[in-house]
Design a protein that fits this description.
Layout (H helix, E strand, L loop, with lengths): L6 E9 L2 E10 L4 E6 L8 H11 L3 E11 L1 H5 L2 E2 L1 H17 L8 H5 L5 E2 L2 H72 L6 H15 L2 H18 L6 H21 L3 H21 L4
Parallel strand pairs: 3-4
Antiparallel strand pairs: 1-2, 2-4, 5-6
Helix pairs in contact: 1-5, 5-6, 5-7, 5-9, 7-8, 8-9
């Protein structure tokens, strides 16, 4: 299933010790690049969190933020590190001695000081367990969002593939007429100049021009690349890099088609192809 790298997921859970909220944001990136914003007392979990994420997500710049709110049970059982509190008080008084007009300190700000509130061991273990479980659930939600976005991207790409195939069929159908018209134009130019040309030489020039303007091979390769893009979209796993390569190949054939164009209609068709391919290339950048 096609997955987008752009998604957002938010999960929340309520416990006696408080509220946990995980928020994950993902945008396109060549590789997996996670970053975590965690409370100080849970920073030691970052290694496990990275591993959990790596098991589920292969590409994308992922920002993960955990918010923890205190619950009634935690609020009623707060244990203070009194030695640290005394040190903080001494430091605050020393600073106030230098800045007499400083604003009064909010006690709630003090409670947020790392290590001032001592977590009970059982609360810490439960907090760790619930944090990891909620993170796993949030990653699942993120992946579901990425797959929904990916399905939409796939529909947009397939629509443009259909348009490309239609343009290729149109050019292919008109090719005999285009070459015949060009041969007639060449004969007319010689006639208008009243040049005496050996008929055999004229035919050779027409054959040479026809060979230079022959775009059957480019049209065949465009059809082949379109089929390969459809096949790749149906695969599981990481397909973004493969699709990006195919976009380059499609663009190469469209450029060659434009260079070989001998009538305005073919030039316009080549431009239309390049527009569609560029639109797909932009969408492919978001596919994992």
């Amino acid at each position: 299933m096609t997955s987008s790298m752009t998604a957002f997921a938010r999960q929340q859970s309520e416990h006696d010790f408080g509220t946990l909220i995980w928020e994950l944001r993902s945008v396109n990136h060549r590789y997996l690049e996670p970053s975590f914003r965690l409370p100080d007392n849970l920073r030691y979990l970052e290694g496990q969190l990275r591993e959990l994420l790596r098991e589920r997500v292969q590409r994308g710049k992922v920002e993960a933020q955990l918010k923890v709110g205190a619950g009634d049970a935690m609020a009623s059982g707060i244990n203070i590190d009194h030695a640290l509190l005394r040190e903080l008080r001494r430091a605050i008084e020393e600073v106030r001695g230098q800045f007499i007009d400083s604003a009064p300190l909010n006690p709630m700000d003090l409670l947020r000081w790392p290590g001032l509130v001592i977590q009970r061991e059982q609360d810490t273990k439960l907090l760790e367990e619930k944090t990891l479980a909620l993170f796993a659930a949030t990653v699942t939600a993120l992946q579901a969002q990425r797959e929904r976005e990916g399905a939409q991207l796939q529909r947009l790409i397939e629509d443009r593939l259909t348009q490309i195939s239609a343009i290729v069929r149109e050019i292919r159908g008109k090719l005999p007429e285009i070459l015949a018209r060009q041969a007639g134009r060449l004969k007319m130019q010689f006639a208008e100049l009243q040049l005496q040309v050996d008929p055999l030489r004229l035919e050779q020039e027409i054959v040479l021009l026809t060979q230079k303007a022959d775009i059957h091979e480019e049209l065949d390769r465009l059809d082949t690349h379109v089929r390969e893009v459809r096949h790749t979209l149906a695969q599981d796993g990481q397909i973004g890099r493969r699709l990006d390569f195919l976009m380059q190949e499609l663009n190469r054939e469209a450029n060659t088609l434009s260079a070989k164009a001998i009538v305005t209609a073919t030039t316009q068709s080549a431009v239309a192809l390049k527009v569609l391919i560029e639109q797909m290339r932009e969408q492919v950048q978001n596919i994992e």
